[in-house]
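Title: Prediction job returns without error message
Component: structure pipeline
Severity: low
Priority: P3
Assignee: unassigned

Description:
Job completed but the reporter wants confirmation the result is attached to the right record. Sequence as submitted:
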Amino acid sequence: MTLDRSKPVLVTGASGFVGAAVARALVASGRRVRVLLRPQSDRQNIHGMTAETRIGSLEDGDSLAAAIAGCGALYHVAADYRLWVRDEAPMYRANVEGTRLLMLAALDAGVDRIVYTSSVATIGIPAQGAATETTPSTLADMIGPYKRSKFMAEEVVRGLAQERRLPVVIVNPSTPIGPGDVKPTPTGRLIVEAASGKMPAFVDTGLNIVHVDDVAAGHLLAEERGKTGERYILGGEDLTLAEILRRIALLVGRKPPTISIPIPAIWPIAIGAEAWAHLTGKEPFVTRDGLRMAKKKMFFASGKAERELGYRARAAQQALADAIAWFKASGMVA
């Protein structure tokens, strides 16, 4: 596809982890970038970036229409990504209804190309091996409000692609790590805790680890080469949690944890952590939904993106090293 570089491209979620990486990649490629920010957004990740700024939110349809006016492309990266919330309703408003409002605004504005950032959370997990874009899943399979809201949002996007010819390509990142994880994300918190020597044990689970900059590059490839209405997994390397913790320990000069704890043994801790979170408002480090998800190894294959987009991901070891270096520079890891 020939990209129209005369018009700006709107990026939502550009102050966040993946969104900032996407915005940086677009600026580096010579694109005119416009970013949509909430009034209270932390702008650390876009400090010094050459980009137009629009203020608004996914709950405000008028602000979305104003932000996308005159744009040739849209990267919808913004999402409420938390594994535990006191109140689920705002997450559904942002992730599902906000996505619907933005896609309709893009249709009205005549945007030529849209890249929608979904998640591998919407894809089924097979009993054996790695999941692909066609591994079946249903809303009933989704654990927790984040997964349910992302599943519903992707259904909205696919429905508009079929019914209204929405010019969208869907990307499904796996577990991004690397520079710029300011919050940090749940996976980033795990890396910080492990690098600080605060994770002496682990459960038998697994993740697909990918460098955030490779995910960003995959977004740009999806805009240029992706097929309208298709989804593409943007993943990296499948690793057990034990192996991830071992690599982190070696990178920071600590002894790797060797104690494996059965998931049922952690259940009471999760209940207590969630009860404390309801009192304090602070997100618990371990949750019952997290333990439910950990029962299966979340392994994914990026073969379709590699074949059709030319996508490539660097080794997980480099992603872990870059993440730890950034957390150290940010003062999160001593």
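Comment from assignee: result matches the submitted record. The chain has a mean pLDDT of 94.
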